[in-house]
Amino acid sequence: MLNKVASLGGLFAQKSDHPLANPRELRRVLGELPKDNAFKALDEISGWLESLESVENFPVGTLYEVLEQFEEAAQPHLKRLSREYFGASRLSKSEENRLWSINYDFWRRIGAAYERCLLSVGEKSRPGELPKTVLPNLSVRLIVAVGRALKWEQFHYGPSQDRRWQSLGQALLAAEAAGVAGKAVALAGRSGMTSALQEYEKVMIFQAASLDSLLPVGIELAEHVIAHFLPGFVFTAAAQIDSVYWVDLKLAQPPLRLARMPGQAEPTQRFLKPGTAHAAMQAVLETLERGGDMPPEINLGGQYPVKLLVTVFRHLTNYLSPIPPQRLHDRHRVTHRMAVLNGLVNAFVVFSEEFGGKPAGLPSETWVAENVSRGGFGALLGNAPGDWLKVGALLAMQPEGGENWLLGVIRRYHRFSEKDGRVGIQALATKAAAIEFRIRKVSSYAAAAGTPGLMLLDGNEPDEFRVVVPPLTFDPRESLEYEKDGQRFLLTPISLVESTDDYELARYRRSTLG
Q: What span, in angstroms and rounded, lies between the C-alpha atoms of 261 and 92?
């Protein structure tokens, strides 16, 4: 794309002669964007945005007009690529990265360009300065763009740049100084009215919701839920007795939980509490848990499975509550290496008596546990595996120097660089048995091939066993049967605890046969 720009015959000899400074050229560029190839269209727009980054004397008034038109032209393509990102059941890693990068790069670049415009509002020394009358729209566009970049960073669980919060804060402070922070504006390609204050609140609540324990589709859904219940949240310039989160608009620092008051009160500090939003979200959650329908007035931007709706509403009512969740068990710092295997197949091998727990030839990773509690532990990843690492991944783990394997699930994931990250792991069991289960039909014992799975031998409710089996195995109408040490057992289904693309975790009651 940049080669195309650079080849336009000396147009960069005078930096203000960039082709996009000419309205006729801009119309031509917009008119030639592919209509039926969203990826190519967005790639071309991002290329033009990149070409503007090095042009110091581009008239800022013209720049703002160019950015507005590019953003509006990009809207249908962004929507289409977003649908592709979430619509496919299982994207390859390369395709996921391709879609992620094109979306993220657009919002990152246009956000930086809008910030450049904001810094030029009212400057007399700049050619084509921006009048303050653009602030209602400009501040909204800047906050939306930076918020979108943060969201796409969250889809990859980081790394996130704290300086984005300074950019967001500058936009809101500028709008407040001009008295337009709450002024409602309409943006082309989007329904409804919004304001700089509303958009900042959305991003702050999104950050406060601790979404690193949700999959990307859950994060996307959470954003829609937050937008709907936004009027119930309370955002103030002074701390209230029940404020839960706070932020300083002038700092490059994300919102923090208000465990104690900031050391010094500042006019740029803002505070947040859930207000009536928590009770409203809780009411919807209770309706869904009883088997009711989503209220028709709630627009979530699409259709979602009930199970996902329940998961996201449960998460939001937990983290955006008047009293956010507290840690159930004390953490103890450790530094201990451990071997890690991914997935049910590998876990079946190491828990199988046939192999004696020795994973010869299995693709293991080495992670470093940095803290441990009764519920699980946190681990550092020196070189995060890109293909399978995600929230919900099933792990078999063996501490260095130990003989026993543990079974766990990744519940949180955050990257603090491109390769390094941190995971929170819930321990499912310290003892498990690899078993070949057979489905016992109502009429007769099924002679079909067995289903490999894991029976968890500790951490269960009385008279129950938890079982990990391949996807689509659990059926509340079907019992499982297996044989152990010459004795046959029957597992009667109780409930499905968790279902992913890779495994199911279910509860059963055991009885003996014959």
A: 46
